[in-house]
Structure formats: structure tokens, C-alpha cells
Amino acid sequence: MTNSPSLAARLPFPHTVRWLMPVVLVLFFLAILIWLPWQARQMERGERQEQLIADTLWVEQTIRFQMGRHEDSTRAIGNDILAGTPPARIHERMLRLLKTGTELKRLMWLDPEARILAATEAAPPRVAALSAASRDAADRARRSRNPVYGQPGAESLQTVGTPGAYMMDYHLPLYRGDTYVGSVVATYQLSALLDEMVPWWFAQDNQISLLDRDDRILARRAAAGPGHGVYTHKRALDLPGVTVTLMTDSVKSEPKLLPNLLVGSVIALSLALLWSLLALWGHISRRLAAEDALRQQMAFRTAMENSLVTGLRARDLEGRITHVNPAFCQMVGYTEEELVGRSPPMPYWAPDVMPEYQHRLANVLAGTVTPQFETIFQRPDGTRLPVLIFEAPLVDNEGRHTGWMGSILDITDRKRIEELNREHQEKLQASARLATMGEIASMLAHELNQPLAAISSYTTGALNLLARADGDRQPVDGGKLKPALEQVGAQARRAGQIVRSVFDFVKKRKAERRDVALAAMLDSISALIELQARQHRVTLKTVLPADLPAVHADPMMVEQVLLNLTRNGIEAMANVPLARRTLTVEACYDAPAHQVSVCIVDNGHGIPQDVAERLFSPFFSTKAQGMGMGLNICRTAIEFHGGTLTHRDNPGGGTIFTFTLPAAGA
């Protein structure tokens, strides 16, 4: 007998979780203790860098502001020179300007040949000794007529500055009109500029340097020693004509990690406690807010459902009702308590439609449902209610199919409107038939006149034979009377057939679809068609296949369509040669669509494009006495049967009208 493995051996995962979770928590806590000081160090480093940038910007603005003041003062001296102020007065103003700052070492007034007219030096030379960079700046200022700074250079001006210090000349060109009359030159010592403009507190923490465009050091101030290269920033002084950059390098080193580690540990513990409290408070707040939002949403949804006129009904997969809204209860006449939880059969099912309900219920239980259908509900008082139902699947938040949701519309008003439209259509059809008979009344009178005249003639002949027989006192010869009486009967039957055709066509009766042969409908109106054909001397040709199936239609409507279309075709050929006056009625069966197509082909004048666009519009007619409703009624009648009425040009000249009807059994 083998020993079965222990429970711990069989279930290793829960045992592993018991010792793994504390380890994970400890590692997580240590990670926080390390991450927080590191993050504090990074924040401190960022704050130091941001502070250095802000201080550098302030120093740069201070230097630029002071140099701007000197530029304005130099420009004022230039204006005095252009105004004709004596050189002695100009010399005094230069001395006063020189005393405003130690960074400004020399001022000179030069004529166009660079001869000194006035200067702050005790014994200035006759011609100004300018460096190559300064002469280049003077030339650029003269050409541009704007003040320009020269490239700094290490000049030995023992009289005005520190030997070996970098000097920078500022050239202000003077123009009287378009004539160059000289310039004013101000000389700056860059090291004195840093000593004068950089505050002591900033110099104690940073090494400040002025660099040229090649990053060559022009001047430097390092009161607290050289910088460490950790926190640095560069800022251009934006001087016209020269590139000078102010660079600051902090003497501070990287933040220490150990003090931050201890502080971070305390902060981490405090933050952990605070986070726990905030998390608990946030959880409670979110739960209360969620409950309040749920109550508001439920109240809103309830109010919205109660205000709907559309009935809502939810069912589970077994067909039980799980939810209804007040509109549905009002439709069926039952309360929510009577319906919710009810299983089929439902109390609002009409008895005569019960098989249909059972069939749909079987589809629901099988997992399929008809998306849209019409049916009948019955209220407790026996009132019947036609409804339109839309069904859609109900899916929960996990994607599972839990039932069906139905939207129910009361279509009583729609059914009433459809009935009114149907009655109106019947009246319109009857009016159209009467109008058609009015148009062929003269032909009808002419056609009836022939059999009536024949009856009158044969009757007169028979009476004459009887009169002669009475006069001669001889018996009547039946052999002579029989042909006359037979002709009278034949002509009477002919007249009766014409009258019956007219009566059947114009009488009002209820629309009723049934299976009827197309040939039978043509025969019933053949007398009326032939009347019009004979008047216009048109030959009627009928092409019907022997195996043509019957159509499922209302004979009255289809006969009217045939009569209207054949009359239009006959009238369209009134002005064409007699040899072309042939009207063809042909039909064929479309097996895939299970439809019968009927074509009325004429060889008339055709339909112009502008007329074809409005051919089926109500009250549009090309006939002087036409109502403009014939083709519109024809299209309405065909569409009532689910078919279409179209037209196209006849390749041999004329027009082909085609309409479709559903075949029997469709």
C-alpha cells in the first residue's frame, strides 16, 4: 500500500503564498525607503538648478540694465555733440558719466578720421589707438548707422584699466543728415563689470564667467572658489554686434543621500500612515458617492421609463417576465405585480393568435427571436390592441446573454390611418374608373348603337312578315323568322356583354387579393380595350405563355392598370402610320423572384426626357382634358401588391411600360 501525498504537498500554492506575501511587503517597504530619499535628492537637485537659473537671469538683467543706462547716457552725449555743444562741455559730461560706474573705463569723441576731439584720459593721444576688433566695430557702426559693440580684446591700457584685462568698446556713430561727423566710443572692462554688477551673495555660491562666442573666458569672478560643474547655466547678454555669454557654475556639490535617507524613512512612515487614513476616507467617500449616484441614476431611469409612451418588457431566457414599465401595463390592462414573474401563456395573449404566440415562444426558448413583428394584445375587458414589437437580446456587464428586451408600440392610430388610406384609395380608384368611362363614353355609345340598330332592323322585318301573314290569312313561315330572331338574340347578347363589362369595371367593391389568371383579367376588359383600338384603328396583339402562372392580386385594380396603360398606348399611336399602329401586351414569369412581369408595348411618339421626370407625379398630364392621376393611380395600385411600375423607350420607337405582380403562392 502506497502512502498518499500530504495535503501540503498536494496544495503547494497556498503554502507558498503564506510566506511569500510578507517577503513581498518587506521588499516593497524597503523599495519605498530607498526610492523616497532618491526622489527627494532629485527634487532638491531640480530645485537648486531652477534657483540657479532664476538667479542667473536676475544677474543678466542687472548687467544689461546697467549697460543700457550707459548706452542712453552715451546717446545723450552724442545728441549734444550734434547740437553743437563745445568740446569743453562734452569733456565734462564724459567725466561725470565715467564716475557712475567703475566698469566704464574710457570715453572718447572721435572725428571721421579717428582723431580724438575730447576724451576722459589725462593726456590722450592725437589719434585714437583702437584695436583691430574695435576698428571693425567702428566700421560696422558707420555702415549700419546703429550702435555696435566690438569684440572684446586683451588691451594694455595702464592709464584707464587693469593691464591684460579684456576690454570692449561701444561705438555710437554720429550723423548730421546723411553726413558722418564722427563717433562716441565707450570702453568697458569686463572684469570690473562682474565685480560691480554681481551681488556678493550670488558670488559666494557661484563662479561667474563671461565667455565669447568660442567659449573663451573673458572675465571671471570666483569669490568662493571654482564651481563643481554640477549646477551650471548659460545666458546670452544680447549685445548688438557681439556675442557675450554669462555663465554661472555653482560651488555646491550633489545632495547627500544619507541625510535624505533618514529623513525619507520618517517621511515614508508618516506618509504611509497618512496614506492609510486618506485611502480609508477616500474609500468611504467613493462608496457613499457611488451609492448616491446609483440612487440618482435609478431615480432618473425610473422617471424616464415612467414618462415613456413606448411599452418596455424584459424576459429571461425561459420567457418569464422580469420587468415592465407603466406604459406596457397601461397597454395590456394589467398591473406590474400581475405580470412580473409570470410565465407563458400570458394573460394578454389573444385566443385566436395563440398558435402564433406559441411559435414565437418556442423560438425564444431555442435562443432566436424575431427582431420586429406585429401582433395583437387583448385587455381584460376584451379590447383588442394591435402592437408593433421590437426584440433585442439583453446582455449583462460580463457579456452573458440573460434574456430579451422588447419595445412595444401601440399602432392603433397607424392601423386606423392605413384603413382610411385604403378607403381613400378605393374611392380614388372608383373615381378614376368613372373618369375612364367618361372618356370612352362616345365610343361606348357608338358601339352600342350598332347592335341596337341591328335589333331594331331584325325586329321590324319579323313584324312585317307577321303582318303579311295575317293579311293573307296564311300561317307564319318559321323558317323565315328564325334567322331574324337569332340575329336579334346575338346582337342583344353583344350589347349586354358591353354593358356588363362597363358595369363590372365601374362598380364599387371591396379590394380583395386572390389567385387569378392574367388572361381572365384581359378577357373581362377586352371589349373596352377593343372599343378604343377600333376608334384609332390600332391592332391589339396579346402574347401570353401557355404555362404562365396565375398572379395573387386584386382583379379590379389590375384591370384598371391594364385599361389605363393600353388606352395611353393606343392614344400615343394616333398620329403614326397605320402600319405601325400595333399595341402588344406580353407577359413572362421570373422564377427566382417568383413574379409575373407584364409589358405594354406601343409604337407611338415616345416620352420626352422632361416629361419622363414627372410622369408619375400627381396632377401632371400631357392631355388637354387629363386629370393627371392615371399613371399615379396605376403605380399606387401596383405598389399596393408589392410590385413596381416602370417605363423605358422602345428600341423600335415608342414606349414600353412594365409592371410586376407576385405569382400565386408567393
UniProtKB/TrEMBL annotation:
The keyword Metal-binding does not apply. SUPFAM superfamilies: ATPase domain of HSP90 chaperone/DNA topoisomerase II/histidine kinase, Homodimeric domain of signal transducing histidine kinase, PYP-like sensor domain (PAS domain). Residues 296-368 form the PAS domain. The chain crosses the membrane at residues 20-38, 257-281. Residues 130-156 are annotated as: Disordered. It comes from the Bacteria. CDD domains: HisKA (cd00082), PAS (cd00130). It catalyses: ATP + protein L-histidine = ADP + protein N-phospho-L-histidine. Its EC number is 2.7.13.3. Keywords: ATP-binding, Kinase, Membrane, Nucleotide-binding, Phosphoprotein, Transferase, Transmembrane, Transmembrane helix, Two-component regulatory system. Signal peptide: none annotated. Residues 443-665 form the Histidine kinase domain. Residues 371-423 form the PAC domain. This is histidine kinase. It comes from Pseudoduganella plicata.
